[in-house]
Amino acid sequence: TDVEDELHRIISLPIVVENDANVAALGEAWVGAGRNLDSFFMITLGTGVGGAIFARSTGIWNGASYRGGEVGHAILYPGGKPCACGQQGCVEQYLSGRSIEATFEQLAGKRLRCPEIFAAAAVGHEQATPIVNRFCSDLAVLLTSLNNIFDPAGFIIGGGLVHLRQFWWAKVQQAFQTQCMHGEAVALLPATTGNSAGLLGAAYLALGLKREHLDESNS
Predict the structure, then answer these.
(1) Beta-carbon count within 10 A of 108 CB
(2) What is d(CA 74, CA 90) in angstroms, rounded to the nearest whole number?
(3) Residue 78 has what pLDDT?
(4) In which region does residue 187 sit, left (phi positive, over 0), alpha (psi from -120 to 50) or beta (all else)?
(5) Domain 3-218 - what CATH class?
């Protein structure tokens, strides 16, 4: 079913359908961390891993089949952990909150939430520390690869795990700047609009639709 056409048929208003990472990026581009960047790659680290590619001149880059920016299903470890998408070794299986909690449970035999795992790693917990160190290393590798492919002015990192950045941000930034060509010239920024990013991005899209509708009405 074409959701956009079906909703338009029911309520007779302009409709746009967009995914959560893309509207979060639009929110950050409009009033958040990306407002002074000409281009950026946004990564959302939460229960899963999402991504969006934004350029001031063109907006969101969706790709040929609307899968542009799906960084959660880039391969981080060939032949690695199986993913629900059918691939193996996807980023989401290593950098998502769900994957971190699952790995800790496998190693420690008990289940903790991410805030507890990151806090435990900060004081040298035997199982938590290598998990968080690997998270930092893997994220820096991902950022390096994305930077060399897309050459954005910056990266914006959002999602639930960014609220725990006091435990990992400095390590990731140092590793990225050390291993990435010209990494020191690339902005690495936490998202600033929080849970409102998607709402702000959706509002931005709606305002754009309103302007288009008015332009069509006046032409």
Answers:
(1) 16
(2) 5
(3) 98
(4) beta
(5) alpha beta
**How does strand 39-45 pair with strand 154-158?**
parallel
Separation between Cα atoms, residue 17 and residue 131, nearest integer Å: 37
- Strands of 49-55's sheet, edge to edge? 59-60, 49-55, 39-45, 154-158, 187-190
**Token code pair at residue 34:** 């990306």
pLDDT digits (tens, 9 = 90+) for 32-68: 999 999 999 999 999 999 999 999 999 999 999 889 9
What pTM was estimated for this model as a whole? 0.90
Give me the residue spans of the domains in the chain.
Answer: 3-218
Q: How confident is the model over 166-199, as pLDDT tens digits? A: 999 999 999 999 999 989 999 999 999 988 998 9
Report the distance separating Cα 120 and Cα 117, nearest Å. 5
